[in-house]
Inverse folding.
């Protein structure tokens, strides 16, 4: 990004002149090293403890003082955690929930934002306003009527409990996504769309071959938010899909009945997918986050 | 078909020349709108089902009771019941306590780390990855991990405190420190997102402002107070509001880490709501509590927006 440019040109809190003096340079190095060490201990430390904890025996895990490296590392705890937690099933459930939610969000939120931004239906602004107003509603306060709604869907009387739909559908009602997408679509000039129209493209074609290719960055942001939100949710899956638990809920349910090293190994296994995802896509995620958050 | 009249080229033509193509303007507008609403329908249905309808239903429910499978209107009975519940005020107190401590840490820690990280010319991306890593964990994994660190006996935290000859703590086991412990977990797990938001805001501050302040003889702290803070004021206040609203709804940490204890000292409002509905099967009472939570947070948001607007006018 602009990191190189920034460090060269723009000054921040401390002036470059001060930093280039010998005293400044020394202080800078000391503070930098201290921060790096501290931050590594605080943020990686617990993860390291979790990763190595699974290799330890239950006795070694609770020993004082704790051991930095496992004495006789064994993978037993990991295989046991995998089996006892039913990790394969939990992972599959979570992937299905997150993947489906992402797909539905992309289809419906993109379509809605495109309509509000470019097709401009009557009452479009009222609808957008009502959607945005829902952002002011604290999610936890609505859990009860939402739960009763999915138990018996109005008019059609379907019970969505323990089906993926109960996770998928509510994620579409995401005003923030629609707002982000609409704002991005607003910035695409109408002339471009009209040109495509003149060539005979209908709205679906225009959306597919003009708008979407231009919107890759924002689609990335929305996708990441969508995936992570489902992956991290707890209360909603806890009450709506008790028979097909998510990773989060499943680990919590099993937590009380497992040997400690097995549970720690399980925590590590549960964390691994998102950590790997993050490390692989961290550049995109970071860029997306700042793009998404700077909406003010 | 009428759609032939309103296909893309015709509309584009109309847009260019300003002359509507021949055909009924009314029908064209209708088909155009039908098509636009067809694109909206999926999201609209989901909003209706999972946001707007539950909102209305919650208010209706809060004035009703179900007896022997029949629904009755009971006026303010549910509200009287929750206000009379001996757990009601303590739950608010615990919630406010969590929000208070969480703001103290959760607001200061990300801002300070963003300021520090922003000063470095090295390792910036490493530090950004580091603070954000916990945000990506499934919350239960992070929370249960800290349960081990906070064990009063063999927990890592007490061992570190002992090694430093500091007094140890009973962490989650004591009423006095349980809430603080929850805040520590929550801050560790969530501060990454706020840090990144602040970092982005800091990078847009023009360097000349610091230059000028320094020429005026402002020291480090005064530069932060008179340049950094005002320049990031908007984003700071927005994040403050978001954090208040989020922390007032804290549930997972309590549920997973302490089960509301010890002696109910971490039972929050949302926890109480969950208990009404899923432990005592009193959905209407839970709905009434939901309405109270809505009103309280709604009032907070309204006051915030009012202050914000007034601040903008001055």
């Amino acid at each position: 990004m602009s990191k190189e440019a920034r460090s060269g040109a723009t000054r921040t809190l401390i002036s470059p002149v001060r930093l280039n003096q010998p005293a400044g340079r020394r202080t800078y190095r000391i503070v930098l090293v201290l921060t790096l060490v501290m931050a590594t201990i605080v943020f990686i430390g617990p993860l390291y403890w979790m990763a190595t904890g699974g290799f330890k025996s239950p006795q070694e895990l609770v020993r004082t003082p704790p051991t930095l490296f496992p004495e006789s590392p064994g993978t037993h705890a990991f295989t046991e955690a995998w089996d006892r937690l039913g990790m394969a099933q939990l992972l599959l459930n979570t992937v299905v929930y997150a993947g489906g939610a992402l797909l539905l969000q992309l289809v419906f939120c993109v379509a809605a934002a495109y309509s509000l931004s470019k097709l401009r239906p009557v009452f479009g602004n009222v609808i957008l306003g009502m959607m945005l107003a829902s952002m002011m509603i604290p999610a936890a306060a609505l859990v009860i009527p939402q739960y009763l709604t999915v138990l018996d869907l109005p008019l059609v009387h379907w019970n969505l409990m323990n089906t993926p739909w109960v996770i998928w559908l509510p994620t579409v009602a995401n005003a923030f996504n629609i707002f982000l997408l609409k704002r991005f679509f607003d910035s695409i000039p109408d002339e471009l769309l009209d040109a495509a129209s003149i060539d005979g493209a209908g709205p679906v074609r225009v959306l597919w071959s003009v708008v979407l290719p231009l919107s890759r960055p924002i689609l990335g942001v929305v996708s990441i938010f969508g995936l992570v939100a489902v992956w991290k949710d707890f209360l909603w899956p806890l009450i709506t899909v008790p028979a097909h638990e998510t990773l989060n809920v499943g680990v919590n349910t099993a937590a009380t009945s497992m040997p400690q090293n097995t549970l720690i190994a399980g925590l590590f296994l549960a964390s691994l997918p998102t950590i790997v995802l993050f490390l692989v896509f961290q550049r995109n995620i970071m860029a997306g986050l700042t793009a998404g958050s700077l909406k003010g | 078909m009428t759609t032939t009249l309103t296909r893309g080229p015709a509309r584009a033509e109309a847009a260019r020349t300003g002359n509507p193509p021949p055909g009924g303007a009314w029908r064209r507008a209708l088909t155009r709108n039908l098509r636009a609403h067809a694109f909206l329908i999926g999201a609209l249905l989901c909003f209706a089902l999972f946001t707007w309808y539950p909102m209305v239903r919650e208010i209706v429910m809060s004035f009703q009771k179900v007896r022997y499978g029949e629904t009755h209107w009971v006026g303010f009975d549910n509200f009287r019941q929750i206000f009379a519940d001996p757990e009601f005020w303590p739950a608010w107190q615990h919630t406010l306590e969590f929000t208070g401590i969480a703001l103290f840490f959760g607001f200061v820690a990300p801002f300070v780390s963003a300021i520090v990280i922003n000063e470095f010319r090295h390792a910036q991306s490493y530090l950004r990855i580091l603070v954000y890593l916990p945000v990506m964990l499934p919350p239960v994994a992070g929370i249960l991990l800290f349960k081990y660190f906070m064990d009063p006996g063999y927990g890592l935290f007490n061992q570190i405190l002992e090694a430093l000859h500091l007094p140890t703590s009973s962490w989650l086991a004591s009423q006095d420190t349980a809430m603080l412990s929850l805040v520590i977990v929550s801050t560790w797990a969530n501060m990454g997102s706020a840090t990144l938001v602040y970092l982005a805001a800091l990078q847009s501050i023009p360097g000349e402002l610091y230059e000028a302040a320094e020429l005026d003889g402002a020291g480090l702290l005064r530069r932060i107070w008179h340049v950094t803070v005002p320049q990031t004021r908007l984003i700071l206040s927005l994040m403050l509001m978001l954090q208040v609203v989020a922390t007032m709804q804290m549930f997972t940490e309590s549920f997973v880490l302490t089960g509301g204890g010890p002696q109910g000292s971490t039972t929050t409002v949302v926890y109480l709501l969950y208990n009404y509905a899923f432990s005592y099967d009193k959905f209407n009472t839970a709905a009434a509590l939901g309405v109270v939570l809505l009103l309280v947070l709604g009032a907070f948001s309204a006051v915030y927006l009012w202050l914000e607007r007034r601040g903008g006018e001055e």
